[in-house]
Amino acid sequence: YPSEFLMQKITEDNQIPLHINASASLQYVAGLKGNALIEFFHNNIAEVENEELRHLMWSSVLFYKTPDVEAMACVLLSTKAIYFLLDDSVIHAHEHQSDFWSQDHSDCENSSFHLSCCFVLKLNDLQSVNVGLFDQYFRITGPSADHIVTCLTRDSYNTHAFIQQLMAVLSLLARTPSPEPVDKDFYSEFGNKNTGKMDNYELIHSSRVKFIYPNEEEIGDLAFLVAEKMDGLTNLQSLNILLYVLAFQVNHVEGSASNCSLLQPKTLILTSSDLFLFDEDYISYPLPEFAKEPPKKDKYQLADGRRIRDLDRVLMGYQTYPQALTFVFDDVQNQDLMQNLTLDHFGE
Fold this sequence. Notes:
- The protein folds into 2 domains: 4-174 and 200-212, Pleckstrin-homology domain (PH domain)/Phosphotyrosine-binding domain (PTB) (PH-domain like); 217-329, PH-domain like.
- A 9-stranded mixed sheet has the order 4-3-2-1-7-6-5-9-8. A 4-stranded antiparallel sheet has the order 10-11-12-13.
- It is built from 8 helices and 15 strands.
- It has helices at residues 4-13, 24-30, 34-45, 89-93, 156-170, 186-190, 216-229, 337-346, and strands at residues 53-63, 66-78, 81-87, 116-122, 128-131, 138-141, 148-152, 201-204, 210-213, 241-252, 261-271, 274-280, 300-307, 311-316, 325-329.
- With 348 residues, the chain is of the alpha+beta class.
- Residues 241-347 form the Nischarin C-terminal PH domain.
- Residues 114-178 form the PLEKHM2 PH domain.
- It is found in: Cytoplasm.
């Protein structure tokens, strides 16, 4: 440690996504290569001398206590903990929640240092990992509300790579195994015998950390919700969800210094007849065990919905990933003209 392969891998992974504006402190970290990156980890972040850095990933993150603010983070996985290196603007945005971000920066206000804060989740405190639909995000859960973080990778490859590395690191932990169930059959493992309802697919790792994956019912629930939003015009049997992807809606801010684009996180769902944008709660569901009441917001809230038949054209930008798509719809106040004409003409 560190091997040539590890140094090459974390150097390749150490790239801030192009569409994210990162602070000077995070840009400094993203500029480090190979051995300099390993040294930076051991000198500034690692809490124990003998821990090893195993994986690095840049991702947007959400905290359970501050569910409305998506922040950029450099996520570092070691043999002891998961570290979230955050922009100091995160702290300033939540100064009113002093119990969570209890920091005192008075001594460095006027210095030339670019400050970052680091949120640490010890692997020994890790209880479960919930993987989102189509591996677009995952939620890490610890012992309390302070220890719940969602990583919005928006990329199944990054999610898969992190989960694989996390499982490998957890295998090194010496924990007493949980007792084996008496009779292990499919129904007792994955279902509730009283209701006959299947639970989400759970994999209990040898370290006793649960890895929970969504099952087919979650897609069924989503299809039912989408059908509801379509005013029941669609037969649920024929409704297929063709695509589910975490994206950003681009809102141009006019009159600013450089007509900047504001990126708003949205969940895009495409069916055979409609295109939907939802505001999704990525952090509160499924409810953590200590939650006393359901969250204030539903998991999915419809932000916009258009019929594919009203789609006039799709404009594609020529920039590299992430690709920008502009959907141009030709709908007159969402009215179906033919239907109204027929009613007027043949009505009594």
